[in-house]
Every structure is written in C-alpha cells, then in structure tokens.
Design a protein that fits this description.
- It is a single chain.
- The protein has about 120 residues and is an alpha+beta fold.
- It contains 2 helices and 6 strands.
- It has helices spanning about 45-60, 90-125; strands at about 5-10, 15-20, 20-25, 30-35, 65-70, 80-85.
- The strands form 2 sheets. Strands 3-4-5-6 form a 4-stranded mixed β-sheet, covered by helices on one side.
- A hairpin with a 6-residue loop joins strand 1 and strand 2.
- The longest helix has about 35 residues, at about 90-125.
- The radius of gyration is 19 Å and the shape is flat.
C-alpha cells in the first residue's frame, strides 16, 4: 500500500517527500518497491526508488536491504519485468548527494532570478 515518506538531512536541513508504492519483507529483509508503467527501465527510476528507501529508513528507523522496480506492461504482449539493487551505504551517500544537489540547484535558480530582475531594473533606469 502507498505510504507518504519524508526525509530531512540533519546537517543541511534539506528535505524531500514522496509516495512509496510498496514495502515488503522478502526472506526476512525489508524491501522497498515502486511500480512503473514504461517501455524501459531508466536511471531516474532507480534513483527515485533509492531516495524513497533512504526516506523510509529515516521515517521508520528500519534498514532497507533491497530496492525493487516493477515495470508494468505498457503495450499489449509486453511482460512484467522486475529489477532490484542491494541498498548499501554507497546508495545512502548517493541519496544525500542527490538531495543536496537538488537544493543547490534551487538556490542557483533563485539567485539567477534575482540577478536577472536586478539587471532588467537597472536597464530601464
């Protein structure tokens, strides 16, 4: 069942939320999964599920062992495909970096907007 999850980096205070499709135990370990209707798997899909797993760990205080993507058939005759990755500390570092990058890009966009506004204001004077 879907679950809204929230992550907040204790150092930077950067945060994100998402809706996790499924959490399940397989062979006694916690797995996080996401359903996708698509023709192919993408790196973005994998990154998104990793971010969900990272947030789940923080929200629930439980370690995720695997992340799964269930690619649902988009066209008739296509078959369900499933991929998984072991969710390691390397993935956790990736998630923190992605979160920091996202927030830095927002800061840059805001600064750009401010500077352009100032340039245009000065050009009118």
């Amino acid at each position: 069942s879907e679950e809204v999850i929230y992550f907040r980096d204790p150092k930077t205070k950067n945060e994100y939320t998402g809706t996790l499709d499924v959490v399940f135990k397989l062979n006694g370990v916690i797995c996080v999964g996401d359903f996708k209707t698509s023709k192919v798997f993408t790196e973005e899909m994998v990154a998104q599920v990793a971010l969900y797993a990272n947030a789940y760990e923080q929200c629930q205080g439980e370690k995720v062992t695997f992340i799964y993507i269930f690619r649902l058939p988009k066209i008739e005759g296509d078959k369900l495909e499933i991929i998984n990755f072991r969710f390691t500390d390397k993935w956790r570092r990736f998630c923190r970096s992605m979160n920091e990058l996202d927030h830095f890009q927002r800061e840059i966009a805001q600064e750009l907007k401010t500077q352009i506004k100032e340039i245009r204001k000065n050009a009118k004077s």
